[in-house]
Amino acid sequence: MTTTVKDVEEGTDAPYALSHLDALESEAVHIFREVAGEFERPVILFSGGKDSIVMLHLALKAFTPAPVPFSLLHVDTGHNFPEVMDFRDRVVAEHGLRLHVASVQEYIDAGTLRERPDGTRNPLQTLPLTDRIRSERFDAVFGGGRRDEEKARAKERVFSLRDEFSQWDPRRQRPELWQLYNGRHAAGEHVRVFPLSNWTELDVWQYIARERIALPDIYFAHEREVFNRGGMWLTAGEWGGPGDDESVERRTVRYRTVGDMSCTGAVDSHAGTLDDVIAEIATARLTERGATRADDKLSEAAMEDRKREGYF
Amino acid sequence: MTTATEQFAEQLSATTLLRFATAGSVDDGKSTLVGRLLHDSKSILSDQLEAVEHASRSRGQEAPDLALLTDGLRAEREQGITIDVAYRYFATTRRRFILADTPGHVQYTRNMVTGASTAELAVVLVDARNGVVEQTRRHAALAALLRVPHVVLAVNKMDLVDYAEPVFARIAAEFTAYAGSLGVPEVTAIPISALAGDNVVEPSAHMDWYGGPTVLEHLETVPVSHDLADCPARFPVQYVIRPQSPEHPDYRGYAGQIASGVLRVGDAVTVLPSGRSSTIEGIDALGESVSVAWAPQSVTLRLADDLDVSRGDLIAPAATAPGTVRDVEATVCHVADRPLTVGQRVLLKHTTRTVKAIVSDIPSRLTLADLSQHPAPGQLVANDIGRVVVRTAEPLALDAYADSRRTGSFLLIDPADGTTLSAGMAGSAFAEKAAEAAAETADGAADDEGWDF
Lengths: 312, 453
Known about the structure:
The complex is a heterodimer of chains A (about 300) and B (about 450). Chain A is of the alpha/beta class and about 300 residues long. In chain A, about 30% of the residues lie in helices and about 15% in strands. In chain A, the strands form 2 sheets. In chain A, strands 3-2-1-4-6-5 form a 6-stranded mixed sheet, sandwiched between helices. Chain B is about 25% helix and about 35% strand. Chain B contains 11 helices and 25 strands. In chain B, the strands form 5 sheets. In chain B, strands 7, 8, 9, 11, 12, 13, 15 and 16 form an 8-stranded antiparallel sheet that branches. In chain B, strands 2-3-1-4-5-6 form a 6-stranded mixed sheet, sandwiched between helices. In chain B, a hairpin with a 3-residue loop joins strand 2 and strand 3.
């Protein structure tokens, strides 16, 4: 066991103040441990994106020196970035974790789901996700959702009860008081748990920098073949782009979020390091989702509607 | 990496976190204040503003309706009301803020209670033209009941009273006296105009008689956290970490978040409810071994003796350990739509421990506006606040809520379906002076209708 000793700073006005990152970390760890203490079969939704990578990092810290007592679940749209899939598999192997994969492509191949005319597969994730939750009898499902992302998520609880159809009913949410999370649920119901609820995009990046957490390369500036659709730079690929009237160009870009290639846009950026990214986010004039997510622009309540159906 | 970027990053990471809640009735200008804080701290980004402008236009409104920023649900936008607490995030170079934005015009005391339960500061808004009204007293009473450590009185719409100092001084004096009688330790009164921007972020050019901080300055500098560190240490055990791996064959750590106080290696501790004692052999702060840790850090404790300790136990310094009780006397805010009745079987969740319990008595129901007590109401319905006595199946190491918001609070839960029924605060409701104040201010004409949190 290492024995570095962190002493209280003497002579400061607030010797027992925690930095905002320490406070957020402490709260998230508390949430992970509550779930471990109260549920039978929790699972972490893991996409290989920055929020789920931070969640896994927090879970590792929460239970050290013991292993994380949860498995991982990825809903694979079939249109994911290959760099992110490689990263996902490396992380899973490195920590000896168990990964469940629910595949949208398999549902399409079986005829259960139909490809949408606009080619986006994000809304198609809900059924494979909820089916897998039911078949594996997961009773707590960690998601990386943050309240600062979107106005419907701003109304989300840390512990969010879902019925047997995984539905979210914003009017029937339990009040969440103090740090007393109520995870009681009937058989067939489950609880979505959001340990990063109170984090902002900037908090996530500052934490990644502080903890030196590795990320897929696509979060940093690089040259890429992209084409413009609906004001967003999308990556060309077999998922269905570019169309006949769209032309590919080579630009220096990075991703602020990673998700389905058909609806996740890159942003023009020269931020090649964590510090560059932090400086860029701190002065950004667009939100993360506004800048890079096509599916949230489908309607004023797109996220709320998807969440009601069981999306995370 | 440039030096400027380095400095910038350092500046950002040195910040602390303040959680606060706003209380105000419909026309007090709460949305305007929240909107201005968010707007002036750059927390409304252009795509959000565009979305609000677009939605406002499609409703035929000329100016962007900033309430649409916070009303995120379909039903809220359709009805133009706020039906639930939303959490907002903004930051300055000095501090990060989590704002519990509670509904302004629904009869939901429970929403104010929800927002205030985690708040270290509450902003109570008053319309300068109306002064302290019944509504203001409810807000003050709830802040006092929930023991929110810092209360700000924002006297708004000063522009409509000619920025007159006597108006402000009179309201501030009346509110401070009332809040003081409820046991609110500290009130900071600030004259503002949320609409004109006076004393919200920028100091007012119209009120040179006011020498205090702006709202934002006060939010940035009010002390946090070490209030918790001053209390006796409390450590509810969340989870036992026992790897039983080749590298850690004998590791047994008790994981949890320090609820209050400071813990040091070598401290003599007692484990409740068993009463067994040991000493802290090691503190692991998420993988790093430390000699001291304090609230609200999440850590793992190792004890010198091999005791039987499990989730739900409380570790506390031997010298200041709480007693254990099975008859819990408390004030509860009832948050469920179904009532709470005498004789009802419930579950009680206190820290990490959930036990069976029965509601053995409901001695009184409180009227928040004048703090009068309605004896033996028989039941509590949604948004009621009342005194209860709950008998638990197992002993609880419970503090008075006055001493610790974390170890003095609990939930009552319906065992049938898990519904959260009530939010509980152990011990006396207000400071002792409150009872006397209640006798003085009670005018017997309290109107229970139109509660407005």
